Please model this.
Amino acid sequence: MAKYLVEPVDEEVCFDKDEIIVSKTDLKGRIIYANDVFCRVAGFSTAEVLGEPHSMIRHPDMPRCVFKLLWDTLESGNEIFAYVKNMARDGRYYWVLAHVTPTFDANGQIVEYHSNRRFPNKASVKAIEPLYAELLAVENKASNAKQGMEEAAALLVQKLQDMGKSYDAFIWEI
Ligand SMILES: Cc1cc2nc3c(=O)[nH]c(=O)nc-3n(C[C@H](O)[C@H](O)[C@H](O)COP(=O)(O)O)c2cc1C
Model:
C-alpha cells in the first residue's frame, strides 16, 4: 500500500511464542480488527490499520500464488494454514504461521475473515523460504503478473504431487 511503503530491511521482528497476532477483515480484505500484538509487531496504531487493506503489511518476498491459494480457499468456505512473511512499518520482517478462517452468519453466508498467527519454528521457515523464493522467481520471470501467478501455482501443485502430499499435509510436516 503506497501510504506506508518502505524498503524491506533484512532484520527480524520477533514476538513471543505464546503471543497470538490476530486480525479480522471484511470480505475485501480490509482490516476491521487488529489486536495489540498485531499493532506492536507491525509497528502501527489501531487507528492506522483499521480500514486499510491487509496488504499494508505485505512483504515483497511473498509469492502472489500463496495469497491466491489463501483467497480461493477462504472464498470456497474453507480454512487455511500458511507461512507468511510480513513487513513491519520500518521495513523489518516477521514470519508467522497463520490460521485464516471465514466467519459465517446464521444463513451460512461468509461475513468476514479472521486470522490467528503464531511465531513459527525456525526449521519450518528454513524449509518454506527456498520454496517461496522459487515460486517468486517464476512469478517475476513471467511477462505479466497473472501468467506468473498461474505458472507459480502450477509449480506448487506439481511439487506437492511429486511429494505425494496435500497442501495441508505439507504445511504440517515441514
Ligand atoms: C483474514 C486475512 C488475513 C490476511 N493476513 C495477511 C497478512 O498477514 N499478510 C499479508 O501480506 N496478506 C494477508 N492477507 C492477504 C491480503 O489480503 C492480500 O491478498 C495480500 O497481502 C496480497 O496483496 P496484493 O494482492 O495486493 O499483492 C490476509 C487476508 C485475509 C482475508
The two ends are 31 Å apart (CA to CA). The pocket of flavin mononucleotide is lined by residues 23, 25, 29, 54-55, 57-58, 62, 67, 70, 74, 84, 86, 100, 113-115 (CB under 6 Å). The first helix runs from residue 36 to 42. Strands lie at 21-25, 31-34, 80-87, 93-104, 110-118.
